[in-house]
Design brief:
By secondary structure, the chain is an alpha+beta fold. The protein is built from seven helices and 17 strands.
Length: 371
Amino acid sequence: NPVTAASTETKVAVRAMSAAGPGAYAVRVDQTAASHRLELASTVAMGTAGTVPTSVRLDRLDGSTPVDLTTDGTLRGLVTAINDPANATGLRATAVKVGTDAYRLVVESSATGAGEDFSLAGTDGSVLLGGATVRAGRDAQVTIGDSIQATSTTNTFTDLMPGVTLTLAADTAVGTTSQVSLTRDTTSASATLKGLVDAVNAVLSDIDTQTKTGTGVKGLLAGDTNVRSVRDQLVNSVFPGDGTSLADLGIQTDRYGKLVFDDAAFTKAYTADPASVQSRLTAAGSGFVTKVAAAAKTASDRVDGTLTTAITGRNDSIKRLGDDIDDWDLRLELRRTALTRQFTAMETALNQMNSQSSWLSGQISSLPTGS
């Protein structure tokens, strides 16, 4: 459901998500969001002790328990205490240099919005650093049309309209009016759907190559029923299952068992009734997109997908055969060792027999001869 969003003002950015529908609106900026800020009056040295209390109370003014911050009595120590993540103040403190070793303290809330107000004082209620000039935190506010007002604690209005997010630049002038338009992007919708059809056809071609049978070179997965089942599920995704087809939306099959996409037919159907087209493509259990997704999950789920299970099973078989080979290698090595020992023993026995034969021959030749 691609929708193109446009704004006539660069400081008023608009973004459309899948839930957005077509429309046109005038948006007037009444105010932008701001943080709550205190600019303390007194000018003090950064490291001089006694310029601030050793304990400063932070009150969020929202009914929560105030927080007491411990300092070393210097401006530097107070800045450190406010900015310390461990204290979780939600504030930012900055010492602004206004002269030679002369500073004024600025403290503001990290977040924007009217609910971010706070106060700083001594734990005894004493005024901190001569009091402060206050810029109150505020929510952003826009007016849609003539009278519909919307507020946000930030400059981003999420789901201002269904699927539409509006973001204001922090320096957008009050009274700025933008014409926001949301138009269906038929070209993008067509390109997206064609991309899915092309991706499915790429998988089908790969399956056909890997499962090829008949004459010539057979595929490595020829006869594999799991892979052929995936192919059938992908091709059947263009049939909703109620006896109809998606031919009027430009999606059908050809005689080679591949998908064909007709851009003109899709554009005509989408222009006439985009909601109906979207429903037919994404309906649970029968939509083309959902059926492709279901086929992919059934095949490739990393736990129980049909192809995942087949790969796991074949890897197990490879491991089992490898173990059998290792066992045979061990048995053959033991048999070779036994035969080597037998051969060595036979060689030893033969040498002994040869030695005895030579001795006997010598003895016989030394016997006296008689008539």
